[in-house]
Design goal:
globular; 13 strands; 16% strand; 2 domains; 49% helix; Rossmann fold
Length: 381
Amino acid sequence: MQEHYKIFWLVGESSGDLHAALVMDAINARFPNLTHIGIGGPRMQKHGLKPLIPFERFAVMGFVEVIRHLAFFIDVQRQIRKLFTENKPDLAILVDYPGLNLRIAHLADEYRIPVLYFICPQFWAWKHERVYKLKASTRHVACILPFEHEMLEIHNVTSSYVGHPIAEEISFQLDRDAFARFYGLNPHKKWIGFFPGSRNNEIAKMLPVYLEASKLWKDDNYEMLFSKARSVNHRNYMSLLGDAKSSEVKLIDGNNYEMMKYSELLVCTSGTVTLEAAYIGTPLVICYKASPISYLIGRFFVRIKRIGLPNIVLDADILPELVQSEMTAENIYRKAEAILTDAEHNKSIRQELYKLRGMLSDKRPSQEIPKIVASLLKTHA
């Protein structure tokens, strides 16, 4: 008779929901008699997650923003403690989102619930003490960047490199002509794509600057494409677009990977989207802007000089980064044009991005993580 296991999940962001859903599907195939409960988005819920708290409320980033929502996070912790007390799971899988998840890892450990941490906190970038919390409260850390496993080994943290989820997630449903027809684009023009972010507070900071930058291209051979993530508020987004004419701005609501592939160049807010674009192989300008207080606090703690994940993984300044006050419309245009108008520079960037693709493709999380789950359930459940 098949054992019945209960797994607790905690995912706080849209990208984590996507990554976790892929793994969840593979775990369900291996263990057909599972109950999933916790915090996760619509993709995870399709694979059987019973949500404990509405997912949308977790889309918060930055020091100041988190402080504003402190009462909410305290209540979340209280509800999770109640669940662990009354309906103890056999395993906790915590995905990224370290501000909350490291506290929940400690809480799970108190209740003798084994913890698998999927998508390692970026202790190598800042808050190095998080590595000690991982050691104290987790049974296994599943790393998605190749160098993280080696760094965790130095600290005697049980871990493995499982490959990056984007290697499995990226696929294309439309060819270039079909993509153009679907979104009413001119297939004879070249496209520049803007990805302002997946959180409402990111959109408020980034979208107006991106719109301003897009107007600097006077060449009629280009169309400007703007991505709108499903996780952002539609009304707010459209309000920020304001009076931008449809002839100037083409809104792309979905088909992110096609937009990345068929654009000549991308302008992306720092995050997973930059790694996806780099994996696909399209040159991009990486932008980042936080509230002034959040940025100042962050600069005090950050241990690395690069913010773009492609540059960090390649350990080189391949793609231009514009941070805080440097992130202006004029600078975006200038950095983008330097790539668009220099064929040799463009070619060398694409060659480096091809190397990155190889580095992130050698393993698959959907194959590796079910093995780790099986081992943890066999040993601890």
